[in-house]
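Sequence, structure tokens quoted for completeness.
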Amino acid sequence: MTASNELPPPPNDGQRIVIVEMPSRGPSFLVTLFWFIFIGSWASLAWSLLAWLLIVLILTMPIGLAMINNVPRIATLREPTRRTTVEQRAGIVLVSQQELPQRPFWLRAVYFVLIGWWLSLLWIVLAWLCAGTLIGLPLAIWLWNRLPAVTTLRRF
């Protein structure tokens, strides 16, 4: 007798797939904090403003967008989230890692043209202002880590 809220077992075809999305392990919080206070705050501001200038110049836009995608690494040493897939096929376990899948290019392009380019500049200024106070420091770190998503909807 089975309860009505139980799901039927999956078909047994000898294949099991497990997908886990986890942030990559980076340095400890203390290392991240010291990095951000002494290097990351000013380096990420300079990097972000240069990237934003390259984006506005249109011809150098791909370089600027690539730089924006690296802001979390510069600000807080954060590595991108990776999707780990573990598959079992006929007794063999396959493990693969890849970055998170991104939204469709056309959606990201339309968002960037209409919203991302100007919102990213406001985001950069807000992050820098928050970094100037001890209370705002956690918010500044959070803001810098999300700059690629604000600029181009990039999943990080």
